[in-house]
Amino acid sequence: xxxxxxxxxxxxxxxxxxxxxxxxxxxxxxxxxxxxxxxxxxxxxxxxxxxxxxxxxxxxxxxxxxxxxxxxxxxxxxxxxxxxxxxxxxxxxxxxxxxxxxxxxxxxxxxxxxxxxxxxxxxxxxxxxxxxxxxxxxxxxxxxxxxxxxxxxxxxxxxxxxxxxxxxxxxxxxxxxxxxxxxxxxxxxxxxxxxxxxxxxxxxxxxxxxxxxxxxxxxxxxxxxxxxxxxxxxxxxxxxxxxxxxxxxxxxxxxxxxxxxxxxxxxxxx
Amino acid sequence: xxxxxxxxxxxxxxxxxxxxxxxxxxxxxxxxxxxxxxxxxxxxxxxxxxxxxxxxxxxxxxxxxxxxxxxxxxxxxxxxxxxxxxxxxxxxxxxxxxxxxxxxxxxxxxxxxxxxxxxxxxxxxxxxxxxxxxxxxxxxxxxxxxxxxxxxxxxxxxxxxxxxxxxxxxxxxxxxxxxxxxxxxxxxxxxxxxxxxxxxxxxxxxxxxxxxxxxxxxxxxxxxxxxxxxxxxxxxxxxxxxxxxxxxxxxxxxxxxxxxxxxxxxxxxx
Lengths: 270, 270
Fold this sequence. Notes:
The complex is a heterodimer of chains A (270) and B (270). Chain A has 10 helices and 10 strands. Chain A has 270 residues and is an alpha/beta fold. The N terminus of chain A is likely disordered. Chain B has 11 helices and no strands. In chain B, helix 3 runs antiparallel to helix 4. Classes of the chains: A alpha/beta (270), B mainly alpha (270). The interface between A and B is medium-sized, with 31 and 28 residues.
């Protein structure tokens, strides 16, 4: 286990940069204010914060699904104003087409690109195997469990071969056991795929377990409060060993103290 | 929304549901016909024949071909009216769902048409279209169209925002979004509207045949009532009810077979 300095990550080139992002919803709710962040290539960064801190809003702004009220998002140094091929989104509610088979759902991104059927099915098949769904190609979403549906969502995102994976609370709708297994598999998969991942969660444990960096957002309006770098050398450690590591437990505790402070402050303000 | 909108809903246990469903359906029909037979035997009115008398009269009408002749007349305005309402109603409803302008233009008219007792307008139709086929087609349309339009409109308006966002995140254009996501997602409700519209079309055509000029099934009903052949009159009424129910049932089957592969699979497994 080694703990590296936070500025080590800053040396890595940032593939996604957000600068001065603000979002005011119609009706005047300020969801985000002055958010500046860099997401280094090849790393897993988690946006963590209490509900209503604007973490999903920030992720959707990065995805180009929501327009910011202020600021800009840059991918590889170029400002972007909508969804693009370099980013793929994994939805909290899976967003699968109920009338389409697993194979068609996984290939849907390629179908929208107008790729030919046999080509997209070959790519989708490989992606289905990567997420461990081989044999379920012709199943429909209603026949799958929550965890399996999210694998379909993940396979669909992998299929389009985007550099950046944006995951919006991908495990929040699956049970705890499935969630843990899925987290482990996700880490193994991402090690091979070398993607940059921006992950939104409200689970501290999940954030600490899967991330290289954790961005803590403060509630209403969402601002970057702290960035915690987690350089846990996971190699050679089992999932359970990682969860028992002192660094892991200390970081969870440290983040909890910060979040608890937000909640106490909020209660005092009420 | 339909069951397909809720993928987390577990499929009913097939071994238990099917024999139960068939049993209760048959029981329901037997109960109705039994009550009818008893009511006719009492008799509750001299103008109320028993179930068996009615069935005999129906059999007689089938043997001498009167019923087929009558349906030949009735089906013409019905098919034309339902065809026009179905095609243009669905197209107009979808357009209303997609465009605010069309919504503002169409919504008040169709809501008034749906809420108002349109049957009261049928005598007015004769002033405009006379007593021929056009007047009868028009009666079918004014009864069938509003419900088809409003269902298609609401179905499109309620299409899953999450699926639309998913389509956008994979850079689907507006046309792809409509064709591949919105319309398929709206189709259960569009079909529900079509079934209700067809049922309303039956009301329209029979009203037209009773109120405008007695032809077809309407003529069978009117004639046999006037000469006090109540069994024949009820046979005609019974036949049109059965015909309407079967048509609506077939429409549902066609929808599942051609448009909802996931429901077809579920049904096949039962």
